[in-house]
Amino acid sequence: MSGHRFRYAQPEQAAQACARHIRARLEEALAGAPAASFAVSGGSSPKLMFGYLTDEPFPWDRVLLFWVDERCVPHGDPQSNFTMAEEHLIRPAGIPQRNVHRIRGEIRPDDASECYAAGIRDALGTPPRFDVIHLGMGPDGHTASLFPGEARIEDSDGVAAAVYVEKFSQWRVTLLPAVLLGARHTVFFVTGADKAVMLRKVLEEGYEPMKYPAQLIAHHGRGVAWFLDDAAAALLE
């Protein structure tokens, strides 16, 4: 089961629909609890979607914000997922700092992952269960910072871990499968022709999550929704 797919002609349309879907799921969570939990991904693609997330009033003061993964770089570094979200989501939405649970990419990777996992448990309990997790997918099939061949793809117990990404010669901290699969709703936002070949493999070929990590969530995630543009979805049946 790969979840529901929503396809749009342009990335802007996909981003707007994705933002509406996320807000609706957060509203559902807030209807039954004082706060909702939301984990976001980094990279360049989410900037567009974040703009639509913040284009109308929403009770962001009741949303606890987390990250799916982070590059181990200093606070303020252009590669920092937190820095991007701070500019395009946190400040425009007016999310209070008390609700922002960032990954401390400036400290030792193992320490950062341990601190982050402890913070998630403190905020969400054990096992932690996010209301909404937003994911992307790379042309190589990675999601979060679980890249092809990463041993942590088979970690069914942990919350977060430091992983070394060989192709970028970089340490990162990432949420692990148990947390990703435990989310009440998972939202993929995938656009661009460079994703087309891999998207077809992830959604339509045999299950090989060590080779195509995004398949892990596509096959076993809960409430999975894919928001795609025509360029990314061009090869899907």
Produce the secondary structure layout.
Layout: E1 4-8, H1 11-31, E2 36-40, H2 46-53, E3 63-67, E4 69-71, H3 81-93, H4 109-124, E5 132-135, E6 160-165, E7 170-175, H5 177-182, E8 185-190, H6 196-204, H7 214-220, E9 224-229
Parallel strand pairs: 1-9, 2-3, 2-5, 5-8, 8-9
Antiparallel strand pairs: 4-7, 6-7
Distance from first to last alpha carbon: 15 Å
- Which shape, going by the Cα principal axes? globular
What is the strand arrangement across the widest sheet?
1-9-8-5-2-3
Please tell me the overall pLDDT. 96
> Percent helix among the residues?
25-40%
The SSE order reads: EHEHEEHHEEEHEHHE
Low-confidence stretches: none
Report the CATH topology name. Answer: Rossmann fold
Tell me what portion of residues adopts beta-strand conformation: 15-25%
Rg is 16 Å
Q: Compute the number of helices.
A: 7
In the CATH hierarchy, the architecture is 3-Layer(aba) Sandwich
Reported for the largest beta sheet, the result is: 6 strands, parallel
The assigned structural class equals alpha/beta
The CATH class is: Alpha Beta
Tally of structural domains? 1
β-strand number: 9
